[in-house]
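Dear colleagues,

As part of the handover before I leave the project, I'm documenting each prediction I ran so the next person doesn't have to rerun anything. This entry is a single chain, and its sequence is reproduced below.
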Amino acid sequence: MPKNIFTRDRSLPLNRKHKIAIAGVGALGAAAVALTAVPASGQTTTTSEAAPTAKVAYSTQQIQDVQAGVTGQLASASQKVAAIEAKQEAAAKKETAAKKAAAKKAAAKREAKQSTSRSAARTEVKKSYPNNLDGWIREARAIMKKHGIPGSYEGIHRNIMRESSGNPMAINDWDINAINGIPSKGLLQVIPPTFEAYHVAGTSKNIYDPVANIVAACNYAADKYGTMDNVDSAY
């Protein structure tokens, strides 16, 4: 049987290694005794029992509150966005209405101005062109100017005096045109077909109307002779 390391054979001398081993074992034994002998009060004790596991309680209440809070914030944000959009839409409608009102007002103002101008023009015509030969020629020349029809006051007056002596109701019932059933009529003795062909828009369609008769005759003379000024006889 092997010998106990703590029992040595006295017949064998102890060397240095034996002494160190014995001293180490003795120190370990003393430490073990000291640990078991520590008093309970104020000192750390060792135990083999495990600490009880703490119980954890779970609840959905906090999560529900968080969800409710987020939902409320989203709803509030949506309401703010809707309010902003409503304000923008209202502002746009207001601006559009203001523009329409301004355009309508401007149109009414232009129409009133144009109406006034037309009324003034009509008044001016009545005041500027008396109902006589002088007035008829001047009014006819104003219309001719707008349509680019040439003819001087003197050339028109000269031909009127030769053709009708200034009588707007004059009619020729003896020349070839009369024989053919289309007598010459008016201040410048124009036959009906010529009057209709050279009638100028805006003037009367009555061949005996002095202004309409002058303008149509001058329009015809411009086409055939270059201008009424070039006419010195029946044309």
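The CA atoms of residues 89 and 121 lie 47 Å apart. Residues 61-128 form the longest helix (68 residues).

All the best with the project,
I.
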